[in-house]
Write a structure and sequence with these properties.
The complex is a heterodimer of chains A (325) and B (435). Chain A has 325 residues and is α/β, with parallel strands linked by helices. Chain A has ten helices and 14 strands. Chain A has two domains: 4-221, P-loop containing nucleotide triphosphate hydrolases (Rossmann fold), CATH 3.40.50.300; 228-309, Alpha-Beta Plaits. With 435 residues, chain B is mainly alpha-helical. Classes of the chains: A alpha/beta (325), B mainly alpha (435). Chains A and B meet through α2 of A and α1 and α7 of B.
Chain lengths: 325, 435
């Protein structure tokens, strides 16, 4: 039995004219990074707002740590909205203190932690500067600190990487993983699929207000494999093809997996030239056929590797949204 | 609750610490004083420039009796009018008086070389009329005419004494008019300025997107209420500073700058004496002095001012907050705030026109109906009105604030997440009914 920090059960939300969420349920395991995926306008931000108690669901309920979400729970949630903003005229330090105190920290405690984080991000000298003097990236750092300062159990990042340059995005990714390692649970919404594969343990894919796919990332990728395999070998391609004929379907030939050594330059092929590594992608109907395929291939060529082609989250995302999963 | 206090604290500190607040608070009283003194100063400046008029009197009756004043200087001459008009271009003008002026008083012409003023024309016309009247009277050949005229001339000082004498009132109605005007104007300015402040603040939070972070830890209602309370608290501090300044400076400084005896006379008036009896001072002047140095009365006025400013600002700030929540930027707000501006303007005009009769039924109703009551009621208070009217007005004002906050919170809660399209008033009314 997994330990879940947050459950949303059958949540629906309707606005005048359209349905933002339709019977969506998610369960976020404690101490994991949970990705909330979906195209623009799918309802991710609405779900996040409901979890933050910014808006109330029309139907359904949210449970935090086993009990129905209560006003005091927002103290244990840190939220970085997609549209980030700070008071432009306020000084950085005062502003950070204000937000920290809104989350229930005492003035002294907030000051102590802020000093620590400011030192860590090397921005201690900004304390008395106004926010309007900072660049966008600088303001984002301040906002990140404000989000995590009260050491919430649940962190929610809405499109955290948008607007960050690659270096700061990487910094952010490392901080998110570090927070998870210290025991926090992280929900983040994104449509950056490579970051999903790198950081998310679980995902939910929301499309047109509905939850269309949920689960552990590794499990989902395996489950949605299309029985495609890639084999690498040395040897004669026609021999391999004839050996495999009737047992499986060849999808693609990659030809030489590595550039031929010297071969191209030398007009006459030498006998001693090492045979190049070739590869072939095949589709195998089921596990029974797989035995025969491997046996036949093994006979025909020198098999170097044989691995399932696991689809990327990007493929799964596109197929799921297009309804071809 | 503690969240709301944090919001109040932030709003308050952000505004009070600004230099502009300190400057405004200290300069406003000076500005008000300047505005009141400006007309008098301008009058005396204009009058200081005396004009020379050449008088050609063919009757010989008027010219010898014309007297020079501060604004006009007469020169007698015998040359023909046409010649004078051509020659005397360095003078202000030529006054031609007909030969038979007594029988035909309209045979008077003033030819001027520059634009004349109403005051100057009035002065000249008045002098001629006075001379002619005197000539006509003398033609009756009454003995001792001068003595009779002196005896007939009567100056009436009417004392106005209220039967319900214990009402707080500034006594003289002309002082009450000035006080009422000033107080009403202050309230009007506060409602506009502080209402706009709340609206600006809501729009700023919305457009800088800082809102979403705040509402993830504070209920929208607490945020709105905190903002309104914080801004109203600033208003309270400002009025309190003015109150202390007025109560302190009035009685402390006045005796130093006024002529001897004036203070004693003012004290006499304060104790219920008759201003007209203090012959050496202008009664209105004395009344004003009595008000300005009466700490008790000043304090009670500022007390009322505070009560109505707090109530009025709360009410209007709630409405402005609702308007601000519905728009993305200040430009869009201009149109939506019309329904909020109209009652303020109405109250302002009502205040101006009703000062003549502070007890008319129109004045009464405008000072009871909550949207206009702060401005109109505070303007009526110096006249001395029954306590129950003030209490009723205050109770209705604060009750309507509670109602308005309820409505505004509903609009605010929906409005702050609406970006892009500017809503219509009908849509905003629909938001009130959302669950």
């Amino acid at each position: 039995m997994e330990d879940f920090l947050l459950h949303a059960e059958h949540v629906s939300k309707r606005y005048a004219g359209h349905t933002a969420l339709d019977d969506v349920s998610i369960s976020v395991p404690r101490g994991s990074v949970y990705g909330l995926l979906g195209p623009n306008g799918a309802g991710k931000t609405t779900l996040i707002r409901i979890i933050n108690r910014i808006t109330a669901p029309d139907r359904g309920a949210v449970f935090f740590d086993g009990h129905p979400l209560a006003p005091s729970d927002v103290r244990h949630i840190g939220y970085l909205p997609e549209e980030r903003g700070l008071y432009k005229k306020m000084k950085v330090g005062e502003q950070a203190l204000f937000f920290a105190r809104l989350k229930g920290l005492s003035r002294n405690e907030a000051t102590r932690r802020l000093r620590m984080w400011f030192d860590r991000f090397d921005i201690a000298s900004w304390w008395n500067r106004r926010v309007e003097e900072l660049s966008k990236g600088m303001a984002q750092k301040v906002q990140f600190i404000v989000t995590v300062l009260h050491e919430p159990e649940l962190l929610i990042f809405d499109e955290p990487f948008s607007g960050f340059d690659p270096i700061n995005a990487n910094l952010l990714k490392e901080e998110i993983l570090a927070l998870r390692d210290r025991g926090a649970t992280v929900i983040f919404s994104t449509h950056n699929m490579s970051s999903v594969e790198e950081v998310c343990d679980h995902i939910t894919l929301i499309n047109r207000s509905r939850n269309i796919l949920s689960g552990a990332v590794a499990e989902i990728r395996r489950r949605h494999g299309q029985n495609l395999f890639r084999l690498e070998y040395r040897g004669d391609e026609p021999a391999l093809r004839s050996a495999l004929a009737g047992r499986c379907e060849v999808v693609a030939t990659d030809g030489d997996a590595e550039p031929p050594a010297d071969g191209a330059q030398d007009a006459a092929p030498t006998l001693r030239a090492p045979a190049a590594l070739r590869s072939l992608t095949i589709h195998v109907a089921d596990d029974k056929a797989l035995h025969a395929v491997i046996a036949a291939a093994n006979e025909a060529v020198a098999l170097r590797s044989f691995a399932e082609e696991i689809p990327s989250m990007n493929d799964i995302f596109i197929r799921a949204v297009n309804g071809t999963l | 609750m503690s969240d709301m206090l944090l919001i109040v604290e932030r709003e308050f500190n952000e505004r009070v610490r600004k230099k502009s607040f300190i400057v405004t608070t200290l300069l406003m009283p000076l500005l008000m004083l300047g505005l009141m003194l400006a007309p008098a100063l301008m009058m005396s400046y204009v009058a200081g420039d005396a004009k020379t008029i050449v008088v050609i009197d063919r009757s010989g009756v008027v010219a010898p009796q014309l007297t020079d004043t501060e604004s006009v200087h007469f020169e007698r001459s015998d040359i023909p009018v046409d010649t004078a008009r051509r020659v005397m271009t360095d003078k202000f003008g030529v006054l031609a008086i007909g030969a038979d002026i007594l029988a035909d008083p309209s045979d008077v012409q003033l030819y001027t070389n520059a634009a004349s003023s109403m005051m100057l024309e009035e002065e000249v016309r008045g002098q001629i009329a006075g001379i002619l009247e005197k000539e006509k009277l003398q033609s009756y050949r009454i003995e001792n005419l001068d003595r009779i005229l002196a005896e007939v001339k009567t100056d009436v000082h009417m004392q106005v004494i209220r039967n319900d004498g214990d009402l707080p009132s500034s006594g003289s109605s002309s002082i009450a008019t000035v006080l009422g005007m000033a107080l009403g104007l202050i309230l009007y300015m506060f409602l506009m300025a502080y209402g706009a402040m709340v609206m600006q603040s809501v729009i700023e939070e919305k457009s800088s997107r800082v809102l979403e972070v705040i509402v993830s830890s504070v209920r929208p209602f607490d945020l709105m209420m905190g903002k309104i309370l914080g801004v109203v608290l600033v208003a309270v501090v400002q009025v309190a500073i003015w109150g202390v300044l007025a109560c302190g400076i009035g009685p402390a400084v006045m005796p130093l700058v006024l002529p001897d005896g004036a203070m004693a006379a003012a004290r006499f008036v304060q104790q219920g004496g008759d201003a007209a009896m203090m012959a050496s001072f202008d009664p209105d002047m004395l009344g004003a002095l009595a008000v300005a140095t009466d700490i008790g009365y000043l304090a009670s006025l500022f007390g009322y001012l505070l009560l109505f400013i707090v109530g009025g600002c709360l009410l209007y700030c709630a409405m402005f907050a609702a308007v601000g929540s519905a728009v993305d930027n200040a430009q869009d707000a201009a149109q939506l705030q019309m329904p909020v501006m109209i009652p303020i303007m109405l109250a302002f005009f009502a205040e101006m026109s009703l000062l003549n009769d502070p007890n008319s039924s129109l004045a009464f109703w405008f000072s009871i109906i909550p949207l206009t009551s702060p401005v109109v009621m505070i303007a009526r208070i110096p006249y001395g009105i029954p306590a129950w009217e003030i209490v009723l007005s205050l109770v209705l004002l604060y009750a309507s604030f509670v109602g308005m906050v309820w409505v505004a919170a509903k609009i605010y809660r929906v409005g702050i997440f609406m970006y892009g399209k500017k809503p219509t008033l009908r849509e905003m009314c629909k938001w009130i009914r959302y669950k």
